[in-house]
Design a protein that fits this description.
The complex is a heterodimer of chains A (481) and B (100). By secondary structure, chain A is of the alpha/beta class. Chain A has helices at 3-11, 17-35, 43-58, 101-108, 151-158, 175-181, 215-225, 274-289, 305-320, 338-349, 352-365, 371-394, 417-421, 428-433, 462-476, and strands spanning 38-41, 70-74, 112-117, 164-169, 184-187, 207-212, 255-259, 293-297, 397-401, 437-444, 450-456. In chain B, helix 1 crosses helix 2. Chain B has helices at 7-16, 23-39, 41-44, 75-80; strands at residues 85-86, 89-90. The chains are: A alpha/beta (481), B mainly alpha (100). Chains A and B meet through helix 9, helix 10, helix 11, helix 12 and helix 13 of A and helix 1, helix 2 and helix 3 of B.
């Protein structure tokens, strides 16, 4: 059953939320030993929530649009009284004193949170192999990674542990694992979903978004979490989207662009595999056949995105993660003085990738290098905003691959950080610009693993990304080679 | 090994970041950070002249709420999560007498 079907049945009193929950918990019991999608399953709290939903229905109240739908929360979303670790030893055992706004909103809409999912430590990674609690495996082939950093949430949705999941996306961490696991994942426009209670990685890039098995389910979840929040000063005040209302509008007359620099052709970045490019081209043809006007556009600075991102994101991270000092929360390693305690706690608590990025960011911000690296990366961000603005003068949306390849095998890319970082080449631009993007499954690669196609739109074009994805989904589920 | 960043640089940055690295980690990071910075050479070499930097995707404005007392997180709940607390405050080892 889809999330919307479950919610309809629960609201109508045809199914009990407790029964729905128990079915999903049984699947988790059965298979999560193998997948390791969850850091913690909060079965008792979930049962209490599900009973509350059933009680509301019995009393004649409407529990909300996501009534009784089991939900997975990436373990970098604060949940009051429930361990929140960011898959890091430095936060092991910490119980936040408040809930993230998305958690509050989803609960108010009737969704039932069943647990916290695994991620690359502090969301730094593209494979969920950087977790202090062991890697998550891809439900479609357990020798492969689920992508990352929201790999636990992607695996939970793909394995039908939960119909819905919450992720965060700083450089592709929703869209790439969605592509790898064959589910829908969407990164909203920066500021559309409150970041209150999302543990910060890179504050100017981080954005929370939905995972689901269908575009309609993802849209329903997006509609619940989107909208202004006084607790997030970067939240956009006058935008409350209704993506569910536009899903059947089609693409007739819509102008669709293909980015030359992410097309695999002349002037494109390297490393985009032939099977992924073939599916992307087929997706573009589907849109053309549905009435879209297709053209090629150039976004020259897209080739610089990777370099800019891997300066900006570590720079912001090195600042954000300075708060883990053993004083207010998390791990403390005792030492004679506070300074030595700070260093000992951080050294013991952070894993290798987090240390690498803190080091890189500290270097990029340090005296003598700031102008050459961080300062220039910020100017590339401006170039990218201008290039996309120019492209969007001629097209309404852009279509690219979500990731350069299908899901790779565990251990295949852990030795060399750069081979891991190139995963993000197609997703990074929308984080640097703050624009929305969605990944929708579209056929499979030569290895039989799912391929994700990405639809991008200008700022506040969130509804449009769902609208186009719905057309691609209708064709893909009809059977694409 | 790349020459973009030296072992000495890595040791200096680790001190700034309050991390203690083993000799093996210093070697590893010297090579890996060098590789990443090598990749960033395309940006380093770029002539960006008078382009304004963008540090944030939105135009940021200061947000103030009304000066009224509202519920906040509970102090005891926060302190209960700290490694050590005393008299309603976080407790830390001695700070004075340290090197800066």
């Amino acid at each position: 059953m889809t999330a919307l079907e479950i919610a309809a049945a629960v609201r109508a009193g045809e199914r009990s939320a407790v029964d729905v929950l128990n079915e999903h918990l049984a699947r988790i019991d059965d298979r999560d030993g193998e997948l390791n999608a969850f850091n913690v399953v909060t079965a008792d709290a979930a049962r209490a929530e599900a009973e509350g939903v059933d009680a509301a229905v019995a009393a004649g109240d409407d529990p909300g649009p996501l009534a009784g739908v089991p939900l997975a929360l990436k373990d970098n979303m604060c949940t009051r009284g429930i361990p929140t670790t960011c898959s890091s030893k430095i936060l092991e055992g910490w119980q936040p004193p408040y809930d993230a706004t998305v958690v509050t909103r989803l609960r108010a809409a009737g969704a039932v949170a069943v647990g916290k999912t695994n991620l690359d430590e502090f969301a730094m990674g593209s494979s969920t192999e950087n977790s202090a609690f062991g890697p998550t495996r891809n439900p479609l082939d357990i020798s492969r990674v689920p992508g990352g950093s929201s790999g636990g949430t992607a695996a939970s949705v793909a394995a039908n542990f939960t119909p819905l999941g919450i992720g965060s996306d700083t450089g592709g961490s929703i869209r790439q694992p969605a592509a790898f696991c064959g589910v829908v994942g969407m990164k909203p426009t920066y500021g559309v979903v409150s970041r209150y209670g999302l543990i910060a990685f890179a504050s100017s890039l981080d954005q929370i978004g939905p995972f689901a098995n269908s575009v309609a389910d993802a849209a329903a979840m997006f509609d619940v979490i989107a909208g202004p929040d006084p607790l997030d000063s970067t939240s956009i005040r006058d935008y409350s989207p209704d993506a569910s209302a536009v899903l059947d509008r089609g693409v007739d007359g819509l102008r669709v662009g293909v980015i030359r620099e992410l097309s695999g052709g002349e002037g494109s970045v390297d490393g985009l595999s032939a099977d992924v490019l073939a599916r992307t081209n087929e997706a573009v043809e589907v849109l053309r056949a549905a009435g879209a006007i297709v053209s090629e556009v150039s976004v020259p600075s897209a080739t610089l995105g990777l370099s800019a991102y891997y300066l900006v994101a570590p720079a912001e991270a090195s600042s954000n993660l300075a708060r883990y000092d053993g004083v207010r929360y998390g791990l403390r390693v005792d030492a004679p003085t506070t300074g030595e305690m700070n260093t000992a706690s951080r050294t013991a608590g952070f894993g290798p990738e987090v240390k690498r990025r803190i080091m890189l960011g500290t270097y990029a911000l340090s005296a003598g290098y700031y102008d050459a690296f961080y300062g220039k990366a910020l100017k590339v961000r401006t170039m990218m905003l201008r290039d996309f603005a120019q492209a969007y003068e001629n097209v309404d949306v852009l279509v690219t691959p979500t990731a350069p390849t299908t899901a790779f095998r565990l251990g295949e890319r852990t030795a060399d950080p750069m081979t891991m970082y190139v995963n993000d080449v197609c997703t990074i631009p929308s984080n640097l610009t703050g624009h929305p993007g969605i990944s929708v499954p579209f056929g499979v690669g030569d290895d039989g693993m799912p391929v994700g196609v990405q639809v991008l739109a200008p700022a506040l074009g969130d509804e449009l990304t769902f609208q186009v994805a719905a057309v691609l989904e209708a064709t893909a589920s009809g059977g694409v080679s | 090994m790349s020459e973009r960043i030296s072992r000495g640089d890595v040791e200096h940055v680790a001190r700034l970041a309050r991390l203690e690295l083993t000799d093996d980690e210093i070697d590893l990071f010297t090579g890996q950070l060098g590789d990443i910075l090598e990749h960033a050479a395309d940006i380093e070499a770029l002539d960006v002249g008078d382009i304004e930097p963008t540090s944030h995707p939105l135009p940021l404005v200061n947000v103030l709420r009304r000066d009224e007392i509202v519920a906040s997180v509970d102090r005891d709940e926060v302190l209960a999560q700290a490694p050590a607390n005393e008299a309603g405050q976080f407790r830390v080892p001695p700070v004075l007498g340290e090197e800066p």
